[in-house]
Amino acid sequence: MDELTQQHLQELRRGTVVLASLLTLRTPGYGYGLLESLAAAGIAVDGNTLYPLLRRLEKQGLLTSEWNTEDARPRKFYRTSAEGERLIDALLTDWHEIDAALGRLTDGGTR
Predict the structure, then answer these.
(1) Which residues of 15-41 are buried (b: 16+ CB within 10 A; e: fewer)?
(2) Which end of the chain is more exposed for a tag (fewer CB within 10 A), N or C?
(3) What's the pTM value of the predicted model, to 2 decimals?
(4) Domains of the chain, first to last
């Protein structure tokens, strides 16, 4: 795959990581577990991208967090907040509208 195509694919996927993270973190999880869950779902994300994103989403009030210190190594667990749930609804609505519009463009308007 050429570099230009890779750039555009990365740009296309960038916004989906926010939505995928919020959806996944409806069940509390920590950063590395989220990386694994997203990869298993087919959304490859680098840790250097994900961890700053988690901090940003928390700062924006879209995620809440708490430390679990019961294990040998403390871990910060994240969970989608009520505001994050509202954003999920808005993003999914827009996602479905964009998908329908692209479908109309690709199938000659028969969708």
Answers:
(1) eebbbbbbbbbeeebbbebbbebbeee
(2) N
(3) 0.88
(4) 16-106 (1.10.10.10)
Q: Per-residue pLDDT tens for 17-55?
A: 999 999 999 999 999 999 999 999 999 899 999 999 999
User: d(Cα 57, Cα 37) in Å, to the nearest integer?
Assistant: 18
Residue 34 vs residues 66, 98, 103: alpha-carbon distances, Å: 15, 26, 30
- The helix (H) or strand (E) run that includes residue 79 is strand 75-80
CB 53 within 8 A of CB 17: yes
Q: Token digits for 4?
A: 């230009």
In the numeric block, the tokens 């308007």 are attached to 109
